[in-house]
Amino acid sequence: MAIKLRNEYGPVLHMPTSKENLKEKVPQSASDSYGHKQYPANQGQEVEYLVTGTHPYPPGPGVALTADTKIQRMPSESAAQSLAVALPASQARADANRPVPAGGEYRHPGAPDRAQPAGAVVMEGGNAKNSALMAKKAPTMPKPQWHPPWKLYRVISGHLGWVRCIAVEPGNQWFVTGSADRTIKIWDLASGKLKLSLTGHISTVRGVIVSARSPYLFSCGEDKQVKCWDLEYNKVIRHYHGHLSAVYGLDLHPTIDVLVTCSRDSTARIWDVRTKASVHTLSGHTNAVATVRCQAAEPQIITGSHDTTIRLWDLVAGKTRVTLTNHKKSVRAVVLHPRHYTFASGSPDNIKQWKFPDGSFIQNLSGHNAIINTLTVNSDGVLVSGADNGTMHLWDWRTGYNFQRVHAAVQPGSLDSESGIFACAFDQSESRLLTAEADKTIKVYKEDDTATEETHPVSWKPEIIKRKRF
């Protein structure tokens, strides 16, 4: 108790004393000029007073101590002990250090309360009596934005193997897919018809992306190759050599001519698009790097790995800025929000949302209990996660509310075990959602135009949410 008293009232005990005579006779129930009653510890005995600070009405900083400054009475030892017992340590400390509200009535710590707040402990005759305790309000999920459900309206066939990756070109006229049949196919977005097939990889094509700055298509695969295709001649014009194992993903920097690839060799590499030079080798992951994303703002490169970590990289120095270790299983997908300075990562344990630039944790999106291969998000705040078992969940980005779950049937002739989603992407208008699947098809979804909030209500209740910090 002595330690507690010293911690709680140490600052008060060491305040400067008034030069006035501190020994006074205080009659019972005497009132000061502010209407405060004074309660002597023992009637008719001398009591000690200390100045506790500047003038309390209002709490003007820097007000000089004058003869008119109110001299406040130190709490008696019994009153201090009773207050310390009544309040938890953190609350007692907060009350002792709380500034005086401007224009409000001043109450010295330890003085009798005029009105006890709900949830406090009332002191009566030295005995504690519990009043009705109000439960602390638990956090609740805010009401999510209503999104129309998405429905399947086209299935595109043509590949002879798993469709592993997909990308939509900036003009929104066509899209490109890469497959385990070692080909890259270009499809008309409006009709779904095949426009072109590109051959050159000698193993599964794991990543494709179309440049918005030049007429180039970039691809990578399990043959360790990274290729640059000139779409005017439909030929490979550059190879980027350096990875020691399968290349799992790639992304283009939005403002400079830089290509970033990630590989099973536990590294990511930064390439100069024009000179084919390897600018940096990003080392630090201890297992295969499954996904990489670029953005114009810092940090410019984000990687997710099978070592369960996410790394945010300094592009100029080629070094790690931040390592996020919250996930417990492999991180196979990372997606950046197109408008907010945030991103999400997908793992079998949870989908997690983070805030740039330091990777501050925002929230968990729980419920998609499968190996999540891909994530994509549109500017309307619809986050899509696709998994190995063929399930696709759609989430409201802001609240993390799962408003739709889709499990499309596999193509006739395929095994049920071939219902896996390897990649998904919105087109440039964000009105269509394309998925690359294990049944060798590309499925195209669009919003249900006939749906309304009445026909498809949000089954949401302001219930208590349980969020794990890690």
Protein architecture, described:
Helix 1 runs parallel beside helix 3 (89-97). The protein has helices at 2-13, 77-86, 89-97, and strands spanning 49-50, 72-73, 121-124, 127-130, 150-157, 163-168, 174-179, 183-188, 194-199, 205-210, 216-221, 226-230, 235-239, 247-252, 258-263, 268-272, 278-282, 289-294, 301-305, 310-314, 319-324, 333-336, 342-346, 351-355, 360-365, 372-377, 382-387, 391-396, 401-407, 421-426, 432-437, 441-447. By secondary structure, the chain is mainly β. The relative contact order is 0.10. The protein contains three helices and 32 strands. The longest helix has 12 residues, at 2-13.
Strand content: 35-45%
Q: Give the overall shape, derived from the CA principal axes.
A: globular
- Poorly predicted regions: 17-73, 90-96, 100-133, 464-468
In whole angstroms, the N-to-C terminal distance is 37 Å
Radius of gyration: 33 Å
